[in-house]
Structure formats: C-alpha cells, structure tokens
Amino acid sequence: MSLTGKSSDGTGHVGTLTAKQSATLKNLWSALYEIQEKGTVTIIPEPAPVPETPAPAPAASGWGGGWFGSSTPATPVEPVVEPPLTITLEEIGLTPEQLRTALWNNVLGDNPDSLVLRFLRARKWHVGNGLSMLLKAFKWRQDENVEDVKIMGDDELNEKYPKFKDQLEMGKFYVHGTDKAGQPVVYLNVHLHRPGDQDYKTLERLTIYLMETGRLLIQPPVETVALVFDLSNFGLGNMDYNLVKFLVQCFEAYYPESLGAIVVHKSPLVFWGVWKIIEPWLDPVVASKIRFTSTDQELLEFIPAQHLPTSFQGVGLDQYKYQYLAPVAGENDKMQDKATRDVLLKEWDSVTVQFDVQTKAWIAGDEIESSKRSELAKELHLQYYKLQPYIRARNQFQRKDATGHSVLQEDGTVEWVYKN
User: Fold this and answer.
1) What is the spatial distance between Cα 77 and Cα 386, in angstroms, rounded to a whole number?
2) Any idea where the domains of the chain sit in the sequence?
3) Do residues 82 and 45 make contact, with C-beta atoms less than 8 angstroms apart?
4) 3-state secondary structure string, the chain?
5) What is the pLDDT of residues 43-57, one digit of tens each?
6) pLDDT digits over 183-236, tens only?
7) How would you classify residue 210: left for phi > 0, otherwise alpha for psi between -120 and 50, otherwise beta?
8) Is the distance from CB of 86 to CB of 40 less than 8 angstroms?
9) Which CATH superfamily is domain 162-301 in?
10) What angle do CA 224, 232, 169 make, to 5 degrees?
C-alpha cells in the first residue's frame, strides 16, 4: 500500500491542476458566488465524453463483407447529457450571509482552493454535485455548531459535554508524528472505549474536536491524515457501531478527501464478524484505503521506526508516551481582548474581500490576477494565525510539555519531536 500524502501533477490539488481541472475549479467558484448573490444557481453539466465509434463488424462469410464489401453499419453513439441542476440556498437551509461565514470559518489558515478542491475530487469533478456537497457540509456545521469546539476551551467543553476531558486524559486516541507520506498519524486505542461509559453526544463532540484540531496539524502540501486502529485486546464490549457510523459520515460527507490511510492493527478473530457489518457502510474510495496488519513489524511499511512509539514493541524506536497536557491558567486571555480581536477581524475580512475580487477576475479569464490571488492566499494564512489566539481556544498541541516544547507553533507550523 502506498500512503499518498503528497500530490503529483494532475492529481487535483493546489499546484498540480491540469488545465481542465483548473477550469472546473473556476466553474465551482463561479457557481458559489452566483448562489451567494442570487440565492440560486443552475448548473448545466458538460456532456459526457463520447466513446469512439466502433469499426463496422465484418460479415460472417462470403463476398458481402470483410475487405471487399459492405457490412452492417455500427449504431451511432450519442453523448450522455445530464439535465441542468438547480440548487437554491433556501432548500439547503442557508442564507447568503451564513454561506459566506461558513466558507471562511472552514478555510481557516488553508488555501481556499484546497477546501473547494476536496469537494470537487470527492464528487469526481462534477461541479453541481461538488457544490451541493459543499453547501450541505456548511449546513451541517451550522446545525452542529461546530464553532464551539474552537471557541470553547477543554474545561468548558467538559462542563457542557460530561467526561469530555476523560477521553483525552485516558489516551483513547492521540496524534503523534507522521507516516512515510508526511501525514499526521492518529492512534486509536479501541480497547479503552466502552460505549456506555459516556454520553454519545460527548463522543460526537470529541470526534468533531479531533477533526478540527487535527486539521491544524496537517502541513501543506500534505492534505490528509492516517488512522491506526489498534485492536489489541479488543472485545465485543468495545464495539460502538453508532460512533463508527458517525466517523465514516464525517470523513465521507463533511471532511471529504481528508483521510489518506486506515490501518486496522491486530484485529482478533471476533472482529471479523463486526467487519462484515461495517464494510457495507464504507464508500469504495474509503474502503480502498484500509489495510490490515497483524504484527507490529508490518506497521513499518507505513510508519518509519523512528516515528513509531516504543509501545509497538520490538519495532518502534520513539520513546514517546502519551500524556494529556491540561489547560493552563490564562492561556485564553487574548480572547477577552475584544478591541484587538475586532481590529484583526477587520483586517482578515478585508483580505477575504480582496480574494473574492481577484477570484472573480481570474474566473473572467484574467490570468494576470492568478498570481495576485495566490499571494492573497498566503496573506490569508498569515492573517489567520495572527487572529487565531483572539478567536480560538488553545488545545493541547499548543501547550508546552515538561521540556518547554509545543507541537503547534504560533505561525501554524508543526514541530514533532521524536525521542530515539
């Protein structure tokens, strides 16, 4: 299995687009602006490519066919034409203002094209389906109030969602280091989970927290994460079908193209009955990213030994032991500085408006504006990380450990430490 975190030309990521992919990206941005301005957009799909007309079949025998005569003419092939697709914000359940807010709240410090391209790739470059999927994801974020996992600190989340911090403290999951493709690796210790030990809403919120926090740990040009489900000591009492369904739904519908690989490690015999139930739920693309490993040694195919914790005995060289870094008094004081926040928000909004202007010029065919647009995407990244301490609570990756080191730096870069 190849864990593909980085992209080559033509794979549909920022900086790798073909001319046709770039044109499709423009079409989706154009549709996004139109529905924001008018409340509705009608997308006319391009006809599907017409297969080559097969050569006439030769006659079975005699002079009437073959080289010297006529044969039955081939049936002409008609192009497949889809009907126009009309999408309205009212049907989705969003206002134009909510759409714009959701867009930029979702972009964070990323290149805006990266977000849009995720949905295009997930829908095989179909503009209408990609836009519909994007808008439905925005609606879900609004309904689920995803922003509260950013605005609220760990203690506040624990107060609202009982036992939230318990999940973090026990190491039910943790993120540490990268795999061979540069993807952050999320380790899930399934034997620590029992469905009845906490409220299901807490688990949903924890999953969203993991998604939103994990995004900050992905470093361009990598755009995906790897999951390692460690099934050591797994029993049926650890199985949580509802949580698995929600996790699958998140990766397929709300955070598409964010999952690079899944490793199911040391699955016992009892798991295979569970797998027969889970497998039909998976999109074929997601299912294709799953690999099963039975020994720690096999993990080295995906994760360098220097990055793999020594808990994977005999092969892991990194003397890392998970420890939850608890909130520190005063770590979110900047969120109370509303005057500075408002100034930085105004600067951020100004850059997003400039990006919109340049994008519309780019759509209209002014390729000179393309370089200006790229520079604005970089400026958005810088502006976001200046703004972040004033609008987003700190997480454990931003807190310093006993050595004074934090994984996530103030400028958004990530520094993993491996103790070999």
Assistant:
1) 57
2) 12-43+81-143, 162-301, 333-391
3) yes
4) CCCCCCCCCCCCCCCCCCHHHHHHHHHHHHHHHHHHHHCEEEECCCCCCCCCCCCCECCCCCCCCCCCCCCECCCCCCCCCCCCEEEEHHHHCCCHHHHHHHHHHHHCCCCHHHHHHHHHHHCCCCHHHHHHHHHHHHHHHHHCCCCHHHHCCHHHHHHHCCCHHHHHHCCCEEEEEECCCCCEEEEEEHHHCCHHHCCHHHHHHHHHHHHHHHHHCCCCCCCCEEEEEECCCCCHHHCCHHHHHHHHHHHHHHCCCCEEEEEEECCCCCHHHHHHHHHHHCCHHHHCCEEEECCHHHHHHCCCCCCCECCCCCCCCECCCCCCCCCCCCCCHHHHCHHHHHHHHHHHHHHHHHHHHHHHHHHCCCCHHHHHHHHHHHHHHHHHHHHHHHHCCCCCCCCCCCCCCCCECCCCCECCCCCC
5) 987 765 555 555 554
6) 999 999 999 999 999 999 999 999 999 999 999 999 999 999 999 999 999 999
7) alpha
8) yes
9) CRAL-TRIO lipid binding domain (3.40.525.10)
10) 65
Tokens encoding 121: 């790739």
For the chain, the maximum distance between any two Cα atoms, rounded to a whole number of angstroms, is 95
Closest CA to 241 of 280, 284, 211, 213: 280
* pLDDT number for residue 50: 55
Amino acid of residue 345:
L
